[in-house]
Predict the 3D structure of the following.
Amino acid sequence: MIFETLQIISEEANAYLKSVGGTPDITLNNVATLDQPDNENGGGVSSNILCSLVNIQEEFALKNNINHRTVKDTVDYRNPKVFLNLYALYSFTHTTYTEALKGLNRIVQFYQGKRVFTQSNTSFKREVELSNISSFRFVVDLYTPSFEELNYIWGTLGGKQYPSVMYKISVLEIERDHSLSKSGTVVGLTSDLNNN
């Protein structure tokens, strides 16, 4: 669901950029490998806006929920679902600084206008990777790291800093289709006691 979430919000943001006269050129790519010749895009990224996953955080408040399903007379017990928050960094690698700032402004405008993404308010291409998505809901909020955190992030990503903005995407549910055990349900109580 991590790839699917980032793909969905990138497609929505690209549609918004196109609607306001911008260039819809957001791609999912690691900004740390931007200048490397063995980059997955052949040594050069054609896009001016890169969306990179920089951190994943478990949502501890939802960790201890019991996970089971009841189907007819059987209870299916499973491990608790994993709930995640993703931190996505948008880097603007335009050739001119002014165009990078304009692109940054458009992304902030997009997320200001749309923070909640569900299957009913979001349109996306149902490619092979996204064909199994039937239900989702996540919220996107602006995340502002401190100067120290920002310095650490860009130092880890290779040191070359671009105009950027970071968003926290919460809460994703991840669950494997794996049963721990199954048992029957209690359907009623009967008494065989004789009252003599």
Notes: Helices lie at 2-19, 97-113, 147-156.
